[in-house]
Specification:
3-stranded antiparallel beta sheet, ribonuclease P activity, single chain, 177 residues, alpha+beta, 5 strands, two-stranded antiparallel ribbon, 4 helices, 2 domains
Amino acid sequence: GAEGSTLMSYFSKSQIQALKPKITFSTLRDLQCPVLQSNDLQGKPEESCSTEELFEWLGAVLNQVSLDNKSSSFLSTYCCPEPNTVVEKAFLCTITGFIIPEKIIQLLDQLCCYFSEPKLAYWLTLTVHGFADSPVSWRESEHGFHKGGENLYNFVIFRNLDYWLQMAVGAHDDCPP
């Protein structure tokens, strides 16, 4: 009743809009991607890359770091791990905002449906970041900001619906069991 309308007048419309997740799409062309085998987490020389190599590569891609290892670059001389393949088009969708776990499960389901169509992708990823200065982390511990405030997990889903789950938290945080 009256309490609700008072709250509505307290928060301007623009503030409420700011709470809605912001979605951006981009297309990455001729992207070097690591070759992965769903049953090989450690990777094998000349056959597939490891989970750690993928995680590092993904960080570079999400931060739009060049992968061409130019010595003139002051930012990074990082290059895509071997073996890799060039993907003509990769789609990157970023959703920023407060997203409840049910929505993440819904997103995962939708991503898995992608493989039921005749697509060329062998795998895809879904990365969920907590805010660096979030007060909470997993389990009963407070989230320790300390240096970087790492607080994320990443699903790698393969065409056969096998998946990897990678988690990263700061040194003082608990990880789920």
